[in-house]
Design goal:
The protein is an alpha+beta fold. It has 3 helices and 14 strands. It is elongated.
């Protein structure tokens, strides 16, 4: 059940005098204190893009700072001068790392990849900020995925005498992701360089 649902709000096609499609937009979201959606760089699946955003709005989960993806493309969101939300599809080629801060203390609590699932069909990876060199470990793992490596629960990263494994979890939408965790045992593997440390990886 949607907290907000208005079937009259849907993507409307705007054409010029010759019937050429020039933009797609919504009307009526302003009555719910939300920006109307506009897309001028239109592709064949524009309706799915619109309803991806509208679904979050109807569920009261919309956040303009949230990352949205469609068919391996990021949906860029930008407010125009009339407070309309302009949607633009951007082909993504790199994974990004998002920092999550505690809303009260503003201290960093974790890092998580963004776009790994959409771009490389690989689960997103998360790591606690309490782990030493957490952001560096995650950046290394992201680079390995971009090079074609696939991490799972049998994969390990070793720095000096510390070994980090991967646990599989699910988010509230049922999407699987991996969490980097420190292991309590040591093994020896072939090494690859990681700054002044040594990373050992096995699958």
């Amino acid at each position: 059940m949607y907290p907000l649902f208005d079937p009259s709000i849907k993507p409307i096609q705007i054409t010029d005098l010759e019937g050429n499609l020039i933009r797609v937009r919504t009307y009526g979201l302003e009555y719910y204190n939300l920006p109307n959606l506009i897309m001028e760089d239109i592709n064949e699946e524009f309706e799915e893009v619109f309803y991806l955003i509208l679904n979050d709005m109807f569920m009261m989960n919309f956040d303009i700072h949230k990352k949205y993806f469609f068919n391996n493309e990021e949906i860029l969101l930008k407010l125009d001068n009339e407070n309309n939300l302009v949607l633009t599809l951007c082909k993504c080629t790199n994974t990004r790392i998002k920092t999550f801060n505690d809303p009260i203390s503003e201290e960093t609590i974790k890092y998580k990849t963004m776009g790994m699932r959409e771009i490389f069909n690989h689960p997103e990876i998360e790591i606690s900020a309490s782990i030493p060199e957490a952001s560096g470990i995650l950046a290394y793992a992201a680079g390995e995925v971009e090079s074609g490596f696939v991490y799972d629960t049998l994969s390990f990263i070793e720095i000096d005498d510390d070994i980090y494994g991967f646990e599989e979890r699910e988010d509230r939408l049922g999407e699987k992701y991996l969490v980097v965790t420190k292991m309590k045992y040591e093994k020896k593997y072939d090494t690859t360089s990681y700054g002044k440390k040594q990373l050992r990886r096995v699958k």
